[in-house]
Here is the input.
Amino acid sequence: MIAKALDTYFPKLATMPELKQDIIAISKVVTLEAGTVILKQGAYVKLIPLLFSGLAKVFKEDQDGHEVLLYYIKPGESCVMSVTTMVRNEASQVKAVIEEDAQVVVIPSDKAMEIAKKYPK
Here is the structure.
């Protein structure tokens, strides 16, 4: 299932078969219901999501609970803020929530760092 999701929604990986195989070996597919928080503001990144169905919202929240929408993650996309925060080993400045039930290939952050070192491009 992971290979098909990657082929369909992340076709650039087809040009990098070794990277694709490494991602398949370390990741899993999860189904997340609408309302699921996948990244909390102030938390450290534990996984990198690759959405292949559904929708996620990335936003900032102020002390009063007001939201500032930054972007949506659609099928074929990931969360750039998660990647940036993970690489810097910083607490997240944003929150990400599943807006529509989603299927996601999830890569543990420690494994994602290994992949990033192995494939710097």
The first strand starts at residue 28 and ends at 32.
